[in-house]
Design a protein that fits this description.
81 residues, alpha+beta, five-stranded antiparallel β-sheet
Amino acid sequence: QKMRDSLKVGDNITTIGGIIGDVVSVKEDSLVLETSADRVRIEFAKFAVSTNNTAEKEAAKQKAAALAARKAEKEKAKKEK
C-alpha cells in the first residue's frame, strides 16, 4: 500500500495484469498510464499496481554503487598492506 501511495507522475509501473507504462496522472484511488509510443492512455485503480519499476531500478543502482564502493575500499586496503 505504501508503494501505491507514493506513486508519482513519471514513474514506470507494471500492473497485476502485466501492463507496463508510465504514470501521467495520479488521483486518490486511480492513476492514468501511458502504455506505448502511440500515447495510449488507460486509467487503472491503484490496487492494480504490482510494481514500481522506477523505484526498483533506483534501488538496484544504489545497491550496485554501494557494492562498488566496498570493493574499492577492500582494494585500497590490500594495496596499503
